[in-house]
């Protein structure tokens, strides 16, 4: 048999069974679960430890003395006033250090620009530019630091962290900083105690990048004529209690599988360890909130280890790395994404360092940890200043089980192929063995309906609905219902024609021709393959959860020809017919329930994804429409 016609006179070839579809699927899942303790491609049958491929970033470059910044005591210049300064440029222009004769901004190596807002939705930017004083020519590369402004109840001179930043700016602008070889930009927004509106740091990053690249409300030429090599976002917040511990997270995840150079991640992590002391614990994972998952997994695996006889420390290490791997991949696939994700879209190596300090009212612990953070910022600038051009590390696709280990993307390609191979086997089986004659007419019509509906959805979602979730729900549901209604009108018409042809050939029996279902299943398998392979090559975390979900639904069921007798039979045949009808009804009810639960507006968008992403519109929705066609008609 083949797609186009049956071939007679040939012996029956090997036909894959359900076991041949399920076995690779299970092997792929098992292989993935072993990755925190076993890797084949990365090397040494284990996860690789942290290392730096760029020699200029090695630890012997950590030359900044390990000193405490302390709380900067600034005095008001003669031209200034004693009011609390919420504007960075005002502070630099009106304040000076006791050892200096003039304000910080009087140095020729430092300048400050207030970039006004172009609309009420975009923030006004304050950009400090520091030019290397020891360089004979103006550098063509720059490092950008984006900071959260002081709390509305504080100011640049009252906040410990921001006061230490002022000290850092002064140090970088002096002639003693001979190692500085790149232009430094410090970007923030102006806060006003009387203003109730707040600007998120995500908006600050997006506004600055658009202005730097001239997309919207461009910056002056002397503030945008350099190539941004590194962008670091320091998202600073405070606990409500002064006795809370300082929490720090390094977040590299970006949208669509984008990640910064691995050298940058391990460099910042190494600097934190080098200058940390006992102020706070260096994060064990490059993601958010995994402690609860670790505790639950540790209890389960601990119970198993007790009964099996495994070593407790090995089990704890496995659980810690496995939870870190799942959390890292999950946040990379579905978010939420850190503020620097906007910069990764422009091809800029960037990171977000998220720090939560104790309440600013505390006297010692908060001040010490905040000054340590500024010390690490200076060393990071010092380390990155030694590099020229872009970082040359070849690994930009990876998963980080912990802060000291990484696994390359290539490790997960093989289990991903094992999971997807069921789609390939099913498509080949349908094409060359199961389908007697491919129903081109129904297949093309159904495919056109799905493609047309998805295209209209893409066009509608590209419009600005002002984040109206109910409007999006109504629009999505309306378009989905229209597509299924068109498919429901197409299939009975063509199915009646096929039934008449079969009745002419087989007079004693009535065949319900379901070749069209096998044809639709073949098209769905092909579309699933061609949509998941590009996602897998982008980053395996984008395609892996989707493949786990869609492969069983599209490959395990079989939509073959079912035979029903039109003539009366004996009691056994009647009983079998009744049982078969009951089974079909129960299957239909279960199918409808599954379709409702997996319909995107029910659980996927509000619970998993915040908005209708490209994946939902271009991958999930078409496959769900094909699945609904197979199960409802």
UniProtKB/TrEMBL annotation:
The chain crosses the membrane at residues 21-41, 412-435, 442-461, 473-493, 589-606, 612-632. It holds the Pfam family Gaa1. Keywords: Membrane, Transmembrane, Transmembrane helix. The keyword Transmembrane applies. GO terms for biological process: attachment of GPI anchor to protein. GO terms for cellular component: GPI-anchor transamidase complex. Signal peptide: none annotated. InterPro entries: Gaa1. This is Uncharacterized protein. It comes from Ditylum brightwellii. The lineage of its organism: Eukaryota, Sar, Stramenopiles, Ochrophyta, Bacillariophyta.
């Amino acid at each position: 048999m083949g797609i186009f016609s049956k071939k007679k006179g040939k012996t029956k070839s090997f036909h894959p069974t359900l076991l041949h579809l399920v076995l690779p699927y299970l092997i792929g899942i098992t292989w993935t679960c072993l990755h925190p303790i076993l890797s084949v491609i990365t090397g040494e049958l284990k996860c690789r430890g942290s290392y730096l491929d760029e020699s200029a970033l090695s630890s012997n470059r950590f030359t900044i003395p390990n000193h405490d910044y302390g709380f900067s005591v600034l005095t008001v210049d003669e031209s200034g006033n004693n009011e609390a300064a919420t504007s960075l440029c005002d502070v630099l222009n009106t304040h000076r250090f006791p050892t200096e004769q003039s304000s910080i901004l009087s140095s020729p190596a430092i300048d400050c620009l207030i970039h006004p807002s172009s609309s009420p939705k975009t923030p006004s930017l304050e950009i400090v530019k520091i030019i290397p004083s020891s360089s004979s020519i103006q550098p063509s590369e720059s490092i950008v630091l984006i900071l959260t402004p002081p709390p509305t109840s504080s100011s640049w001179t009252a906040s410990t962290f921001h006061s230490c930043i002022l000290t850092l700016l002064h140090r970088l602008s002096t002639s003693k900083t001979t190692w500085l070889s790149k232009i430094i930009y410090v970007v923030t927004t102006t806060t006003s105690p009387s203003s109730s509106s707040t600007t998120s740091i995500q908006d600050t990053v997006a506004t600055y990048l658009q202005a730097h690249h001239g997309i919207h409300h461009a910056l002056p030429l002397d503030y945008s004529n350099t190539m941004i090599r590194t962008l670091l976002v320091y998202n600073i917040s405070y606990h409500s209690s002064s006795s809370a511990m300082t929490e720090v997270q390094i977040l590299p995840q970006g949208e669509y599988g984008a990640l910064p150079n691995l050298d940058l991640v391990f460099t910042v992590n190494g600097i934190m360890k080098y200058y940390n002391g006992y102020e706070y614990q260096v994060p064990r994972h490059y993601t958010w909130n995994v402690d609860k998952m670790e505790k639950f997994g540790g209890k389960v695996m601990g119970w198993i280890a007790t009964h099996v006889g495994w070593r407790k420390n090995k089990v704890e290490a496995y659980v810690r790395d496995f939870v870190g791997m799942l959390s890292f991949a999950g946040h990379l696939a579905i978010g939420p994404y850190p503020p620097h994700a906007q910069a990764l879209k422009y091809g800029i190596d960037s990171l977000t360092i998220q720090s939560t300090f104790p309440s600013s009212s505390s006297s010692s612990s908060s001040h010490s940890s905040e000054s340590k953070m500024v010390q690490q910022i200076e060393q990071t600038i010092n380390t990155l200043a030694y590099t020229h051009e872009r970082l040359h590390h070849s690994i930009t696709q990876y998963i980080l089980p912990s802060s000291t280990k990484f696994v390359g993307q290539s490790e997960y390609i093989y289990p991903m192929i094992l999971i997807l191979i069921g789609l390939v086997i099913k498509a080949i089986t349908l094409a060359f063995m199961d389908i007697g004659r491919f129903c081109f007419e129904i297949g093309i019509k159904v495919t056109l309906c799905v493609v047309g509906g998805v295209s209209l959805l893409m066009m509608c979602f590209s419009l600005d609905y002002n984040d109206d979730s109910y409007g999006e729900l109504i629009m999505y549901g309306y378009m989905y219902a229209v597509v299924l209604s068109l498919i429901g009108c197409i299939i009975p018409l063509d199915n009646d024609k096929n039934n008449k042809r079969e009745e002419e050939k087989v007079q004693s029996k009535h065949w319900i021709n379901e070749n069209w279902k096998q044809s639709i299943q073949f098209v769905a398998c092909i579309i699933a393959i061609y949509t998941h392979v590009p996602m897998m090559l982008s980053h395996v975390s984008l395609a892996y959860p989707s493949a786990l979900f869609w492969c069983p639904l599209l490959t395990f069921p079989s939509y073959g020809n079912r035979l029903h007798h039109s003539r009366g039979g004996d009691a056994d045949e009647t009983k079998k017919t009744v049982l078969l009808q009951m089974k079909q009804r129960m299957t239909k009810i279960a199918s409808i329930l599954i379709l409702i639960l997996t319909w995107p507006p029910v659980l996927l968008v509000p619970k998993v994804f915040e908005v209708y992403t490209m994946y939902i519109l271009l991958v999930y929705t078409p496959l769900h429409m094909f699945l609904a066609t197979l199960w409802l008609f």
